[in-house]
Structure formats: structure tokens, C-alpha cells
Amino acid sequence: MPDWIPTWPPDWPEINSALLDCVASGQWGRYHSDICSELAARLQTDFDVAHCRLCCSGTAAVEISLRACGVKPDDEVVLAAMDYPGNFRCIESVAARPVLVDVQRDSPCIDPQSLRKIALDSSSNKRIVAVIASSLYGHAADWDELQSVCTENGWKLINDACQVMGMTIDGKPVETFGDIATTSFGGSKVVSAGAGGAVFTNDDRLASRLDAWVNRPSETFPLSPLQAAVIGPQLDRLNKMNQNRRENVAFLANSIDSDADCKLNAMPSKRDDVQSSYYKLAIETCSVETKNQVLAKAAESGLPIGKAFRSMDRSSPRRCRKPVPLENSKHIAEQWIVLDHRALLIQKQHQQTLASAILSAAKL
Ligand SMILES: *Cc1c(COP(=O)(O)O)cnc(C)c1O
What positions constitute the catalytic site (predicted)? Predict the structure, then answer.
């Protein structure tokens, strides 16, 4: 990795001292630590939700959310074909069946029209109980539309916000949308404890189901006090870092768009009402060949560029139902690449270097 790209996880002194305090106070060795309850309370306040449960990963958060929503064996749960593949596995892990929906053309979030098509197909939609909607690569889902389809059909809406901590939509934290929301403190995420996650809801009934599932009586999927200790200092800087990432995204997108013979198309969130949080910046390439070339050149030069999630459109029909076309999901999986947020944390004087490195990776 070039030395002008910051390392991740961060090596800040306040993370060190938070850990030392956690050890010195004996908090590290407790089942029910103040440090964990203070973190949950802080997340409730910061993200303006009534209930927050910490847990061991974003994946566990999604699975617990499915259980809290009452998903039972043989029920169906809708998710985008282009999504974190672990969400498909979460649905299977509660013995329910995934139903694939398409994403939008220019945003890797569920296309409400595609979801509506599934809802209208009354011969086959009877078993659906929930929808998992993820906000990927800094794009906000169309919450108003998704929520109205779900409400009309009596489906629970699970908001997978694992990639977008700190994002706001019309001034409201992303975690407040949907019936229940998840976040991740995984090793690569914008706030990281190596592993960890949380579930949020404003619904008292879902919150008590969540508690019933998690408390047995010790916590089934706990976040440890040591993990909780490193999160606070990162939350303190989250808004500033998101701002920094957004500024670098704007510069990059502008450089890519103004390069006339460029084979790339930057895909940041274009919504005016969204203050995004970029865990990854998506870039569309003009062909699979260009994609492979950029990935290879990036690997050579140490730029943190990777593939988008694969599309699940080819999953076996024994494992899932595919009632609608999944063209946009396929396209994104085939032709989009993603730049990791470490590269979005560079200082201003390196913006041009980063833009040139990406542009030249796409040239012959
Ligand atoms: C990372 C991620 C998860 C899972 O989080 P972990 O903490 O790694 O288990 C779930 N959904 C999305 C969209 C993610 O990016």
C-alpha cells in the first residue's frame, strides 16, 4: 500500500488509552460492564433510536433481526441479488428461504419497482414475512418507497446499515429507517473493533423479542468490554472522518468524470438529501476487461480496490426464489469495482495522486 494511504485499523493514542482504562478498571473481565451499557446508550442517542443491542458481528445482527421479526422455518425473506452474501446465509440459517429482488440501475440498493412486482404476484408472495434492504457503497435505499411496499403487505423491513455508519438522510440517521436496523464494527468497517455489531429499533415489541432471543440469561452473541472500549474514540471522530471521505469522493468523482476518454464512471451517492458515509466508493467500468485490468493494476500498485459483491442471481433455484429479472444486480457484480475507505481518508495534498493512479490503471 502506498505510504500516503492511512493504515486501518487506526493507531490513535486515544484508542490505546481507552483500552488501558478498560483493563485498569476491571471492566474487561465483567459480564455486564458499564462500558458496554454506556456504548449502547451512546449509540441510542447518537443515532436517535429507542433501543440498541450490542452483539458480536454485523452478521449476527442481521440474523438476530430476522428472529426478532418472527421469521420461521419455511417463511420467505426478500433480499437484493446484489447484497452482502452473508445475508443470504442468515436467511438460510433461520431455515427460511431467500427471494431475490433487483437493485436500481445506478444504485446498489433495492429497486422499489422490482419489490412491488414481487408483492403483486399474489400466487407466490404468501410466505414472505420480511425484506432485508442494505445501503451499499454509500448509497441510501429509497426508504419511503420500500417502507410503503412493506407496510402495505405486512412485511417487516430490516435495514442493513452495516456499511454506512454516520450516514444521514434528510438529517435523520440511517439507523432510524425500517422496522429494525443493523450495524457492524467488523475489521474493515468505518468504525472497527475487529468484530462486533449492533441492532437498533424504535419498536418496543421487536426490542423485547430481541432481548428474549439474546439473554439466556448471559448474552448469546456478546460484544466484549474490550471491543466496546475501542469504539467510543472512533465514534468521537466519525462525523469528521465521514466529511473527509465525502470531500475525497467529490474530488475523485470529479476527476474521473472530467477525463474525456476515461473508461470509468464514478458512482457516489447523488442524492441531495443524503450525507453519505463511504465504506467503499463504487466505480463503474465500461467492460469486464477494463474491470480486470484495473483490479490487476491496483493490486500491483497497492491501491485498495476490489470487486463489488458477487450477484446471487445464479444461486440454485433449490436455495432461493427468483420471481423478477435481476439485470441490474448482474451488471453491478460484473462491472463495478470498489475503492476502500482507507484511500478516502487521504490528506488533501494526495487527492491528485490517487485520482491519477486510478485513471492510469484504466488506460492501456
Ligand atoms: C460487513 C457487512 C455485514 C456483516 O458484518 P460483519 O460484522 O462482518 O459480520 C453485513 N452487511 C453488509 C452490507 C456488510 O457490508
Answer: 189 (proton acceptor)
d(CA 80, CA 329): 8
Choose the residue to mutate in 163, 280, 341 for probing ligand 1, maximizing ligand atoms within 8 Å of C-beta. Answer: 163
Q: Domain total for the chain?
A: 2
User: 250-298: per-residue pLDDT in tens?
Assistant: 999 999 988 877 799 999 999 999 999 999 999 999 999 999 999 999 9
First and final CA of the chain: distance in angstroms?
22
pTM above 0.85, yes or no: yes
Domain membership of residue 314 as a residue range: 238-361
Q: 97 and 243: one domain?
A: no
Centre of ligand 1 to C-alpha 303, Å, is: 22
Give residue 64 CA to ligand 1 midpoint distance, Å. 13
Three cell numbers written together for 10: 487506526
The domain boundary residue, chosen from 194, 216, 233: 233
Helix axes 327-335, 288-301, angle to 10 degrees: 40
Last residue of a domain, one of 189, 206, 233: 233
Mutate to test the pocket of ligand 1, among 62, 162, 191 (most ligand atoms within 8 A of CB): 162
162, 108 contact by CB (below 8 A): no
189 is catalytic: yes
